[in-house]
Structure formats: structure tokens, C-alpha cells
Design goal:
Blueprint (H helix, E strand, L loop, with lengths): L1 H6 L3 E4 L2 E4 L2 E2 H8 L3 E5 H14 L4 E5 L6 H9 L3 E4 L2 H9 L7 E3 L6 H10 L3 E4 L2 H14 L3 E8 L21 E2 H13 L3 E7 L10 H19 L6 E3 L17 H12 L5 E4 L3 H4 L3 E13 L2 E6 L8 H5 L5 E3 L7 E7 L8 E9 L6 E4 L20 E6 L2 E6 L4 H5 L4
Parallel strand pairs: 4-20, 5-6, 5-13, 6-7, 7-8, 8-9, 9-10, 9-11, 11-12, 12-13, 15-17
Antiparallel strand pairs: 1-2, 2-3, 4-14, 14-15, 14-19, 16-19, 17-18, 20-21
The structure holds pyridoxal-5'-phosphate (PLP).
The site of pyridoxal-5'-phosphate has 17 residues, from helix 11.
């Protein structure tokens, strides 16, 4: 029971049945079917407020990529969040969700000219620029629009965030940012470009960071750059230190809190006059959500057990691409005998699994399972692979239930082709 609360304080078994914010998950699957994503609004609000409390002066730009459901974006916007975007689609969403342009920051190594133009037209707070060529293109576009385009340079501090290599972004060998050793030169160059206004420094070292110590090294390097640039008369108004705080996936994981991060960084940031920006994604929505799936078949091959469910890698791809662990519980807890099983989806790939060799109660065909920590980078990474319509999404808020994305149908998948 206590373990459940560590994932999400609004998650509990009541009379042997799993509930989120007082809502029966069984009732939800009966109404909306499976696979079904369910998110807790109170959890999202709590997490955003935890950032606000830990960093009261900062602008918190929610990283839309983690979960880009418009209702969630709007909810966060109403709490005062800005947005960290990485595409034209995310710019469109942020503006539609009511997030003001002056709270939007735009990162990404491969922004297209169309995307750059759209963001200039929207007059976003700043572009987090990732290459010399991007600086030049933005300067050119600024000239065309008769505007000074506000930029930060995304610097790559070459810090190992001790996370999965696919989500480590701040090491020299990664494609992101500009090598911090080259940064001063690039800042000097950018400052001479007529149609740019250099206003910030950006870095983001990676995602799912459970041990916060790498932030110290990264922010120290960034603050040292800030001091050197200030001495040169380059007026840095914003220090954007990215996102990345990790969340509990495994029962033994200990989640760092925004407060812990603030405490670690306070002595380093105390000398900085620039406004701080943070870009959390996973740590706001990750443990707000779970994925409900129905057991289709049970199959034994000798002493190897398979639980075959109706959610596949098209719905939740993290186990397949990162070997990620998601805790999985039966919606109905009957304290049954535990077995070890592979919990697999219906897709024609051996990599289509939610869990391997997992201890779980001996469930039956037709029962429901809840896959925890599924509020970030889960629906957001879903696809139509095997011509499967994507899942529905529901938001629960203190007993209230709102369908925030309808289940797709076959026609929806094929509409662009006919
Ligand atoms: N900012 C940038 C530039 C990112 O690339 C990402 C994700 O990788 C984030 C913020 C959000 O990271 P997280 O969801 O780990 O907080």
C-alpha cells in the first residue's frame, strides 16, 4: 500500500480494486474500453506547484513532448506554466492551450525554416539555438521580418547524467547543443549579428535523472560561462537549465524532488542575476498516469508463462526501446499466488513486451492490468503500428472524469490515404 503512494498519492486499492483520485479504474475501462490512459489532474497540479515552491522566481516551462494532450497543456498553462517546445506542432498546441508566447522557449537541433518563421511570427520568448547555421538562418529571417530575434545558445556542458544513453543529451558526443568550450566564440559571433538579440544560456543534460549531482557540475559550468559573457558585456537575462528530474519506475527508485534540486543549486545560482527557467516534463506528468489494459490470453510454454494483453508497443514503446521498467498491478487485487510471466502485447515483434520475467498475481483472461508511471513519453510516443488505433485518454480530478482524447477508429488511421 505504501509503495503505491510513493508512485502517486492518489492511487489506492479500495475493497481490493484499484482507484485513482477516488475513481474506480474498473468503472473507467467498462465505460471507455482498453487500452486506456488515465491521468490524475491533482497529481499534475501538485507537481507543478512543487516546482513553483522550490523555484519561486523561475519560469517553469513544461516540456510538452512528455505529454501533449491539449487538456493537460491547458491545465498547466492555467497554473502559470510556460512551454518548452521542439516543433511547429508543439508551438501550435501551446498557443491553442492558452500559453502566452512570451513564456515559450524553443529547442531542437533540426528546426525547419517554416517552424522558425512560425515561431518568429508568434513572437516567442526565445529560441534555444543548437548550431552556428541555425544562428545564421535566424538572423536572415530576423532581417526579413524587420525584427531582432531573441535567442539563447544551447550549450553542451559535457556532463554524464547517469541515465539511459538514449536520453543523455549533455555529453560532447551527442547531437545536442554547442560544445561549451566553443560557446564563448559563438556568443561573440551571435552578438555581432544585427537581427539577433542574445538574451540567454540554455542547457539540458538528459532525462530520467535520479541522482541530482550531475546538475551541479552542469550548472557550475553554465554559471562560469554566464560570468565570462557578462564580463564581455553580453547581457544574459535568462538561464535555462532544462528539465530531466527522474521519476519512480522501479519499486526501489527514489524520486528526487524539485526542492532537493533547488537546495543543490542555490549556492551556485545565488551569484546569478538572470531569471531562471526550468523545463520539466516527465517529473510533472509521468506518475500522474497509468495505462489500463485487458488480459486477452494466458499461455504457458513449459514453465514459461505469458500474459498477453491488448496494449502493445504501439501504445507504450518505452520497454521496447529503452528496456524500461514499468510497474504493473492487477486492477483487482485478490492476493493470489504470484507467478513469473512475460507480459506481452499483440504486435508481431518479439520486442513487443511491457515486462519480462515479472512477478505478478496469477490473473485470468478478461481481467485488467494497470501499467504505472505511464503519464510521460508513453501516449506521446504511440503509433499506428500494425494498423492499431491509438488508445483513449481520460483525466480524473477529485472524482470527476473527463474523456480528453477519444479512442481512434480504423477510419481515422486511414483518412489521410483515401
Ligand atoms: N528540455 C529539453 C530541451 C528536452 O530535450 C527535454 C526532454 O528530453 C526536456 C526539457 C524534458 O525533460 P524531462 O521530461 O526529463 O523533464
Amino acid at each position: 500500500m505504501e509503495l503505491l503512494k510513493e508512485y502517486n498519492p492518489y492511487l489506492e486499492y479500495k475493497n481490493g480494486e484499484l482507484h485513482l483520485e477516488g475513481v474506480s479504474l474498473k468503472a473507467l475501462v467498462e465505460e471507455f474500453g482498453t487500452p486506456l490512459y488515465v491521468y490524475s489532474a491533482s497529481y499534475i497540479k501538485d507537481r507543478f506547484n512543487a516546482y513553483k515552491e522550490a523555484f519561486p522566481e523561475a519560469l517553469i516551462c513544461y516540456a510538452l513532448k512528455a505529454n501533449f494532450n491539449p487538456h493537460i497543456a491547458r491545465l498547466l498553462g492555467e497554473l502559470g506554466a510556460g512551454a518548452d517546445i521542439v516543433s511547429g506542432g508543439e508551438l501550435y498546441l501551446a498557443l491553442k492551450a492558452g500559453i502566452p508566447a512570451n513564456k515559450i522557449v524553443y529547442a531542437g537541433v533540426g528546426k525547419t525554416e517554416r517552424e522558425l518563421r512560425e515561431a518568429i511570427e508568434a513572437d516567442i520568448l526565445m529560441f534555444n539555438v543548437e548550431s552556428r547555421q541555425e544562428l545564421e538562418v535566424l538572423n536572415e529571417l530576423g532581417k526579413r521580418y524587420g525584427k531582432k530575434v531573441r535567442i539563447a545558445i544551447r550549450v553542451n556542458p559535457d556532463v554524464d547524467p547517469k541515465t539511459h544513453p538514449y536520453i543523455a543529451t549533455g555529453m560532447r558526443k551527442s547531437k545536442f547543443g554547442i560544445d561549451i568550450r566553443e560557446a564563448e566564440k559563438e556568443y561573440e559571433y551571435a552578438s555581432c549579428l544585427e537581427n539577433l538579440e542574445v538574451i540567454g544560456i540554455h542547457c539540458h543534460i538528459g532525462s530520467q535523472i535520479l541522482d541530482v549531482s550531475p546538475y551541479k557540475e552542469a550548472v557550475e559550468k553554465v554559471v562560469s560561462l554566464y560570468e565570462r559573457l557578462t564580463e564581455k558585456g553580453i547581457n544574459i537575462q535568462y538561464l535555462d537549465i532544462g528539465g530531466g528530474l527522474g521519476i519512480k519506475y522501479k519499486p526501489e527508485d527514489k524520486e528526487p524532488t524539485p526542492k532537493e534540486l533547488a537546495k543543490l543549486l542555490e549556492p551556485i545560482l545565488s551569484k546569478v542575476k538572470a531569471k531562471l527557467i526550468l523545463e520539466p516534463g516527465r517529473s510533472i506528468t509521468g506518475n500522474a498516469g497509468l495505462l489500463l489494459t485487458q488480459v486477452q490470453f494466458l499461455k504457458d510454454k513449459g514453465d514459461k508463462h505469458f500474459i498477453i494483453v491488448d496494449a502493445g508497443m504501439n501504445d507504450l514503446i518505452r520497454p521496447a526501446i529503452y528496456g524500461a521498467y514499468h510497474h504493473i498491478l492487477p486492477v483487482k487485487d485478490e492476493g493470489r499466488q504470484l507467478i513469473k510471466a512475460d507480459i506481452v502485447g499483440p504486435i508481431c515483434e518479439t520486442g513487443d513486451f511491457l515486462a519480462l520475467d515479472r512477478e505478478i498475481q496469477r490473473v485470468e483472461r478478461g481481467e485488467y492490468l494497470a501499467v504505472l508511471s505511464a503519464g510521460a513519453y508513453c501516449f506521446a510516443m504511440s503509433s499506428h503500428y500494425n494498423a492499431r488505433p491509438r488508445a483513449a485518454e481520460v483525466l480524473v480530478d477529485k472524482g470527476e472524469v473527463k474523456l480528453i482524447r477519444k479512442r481512434e477508429d480504423y477510419g481515422y488511421i486511414f483518412a489521410p490515404s483515401f
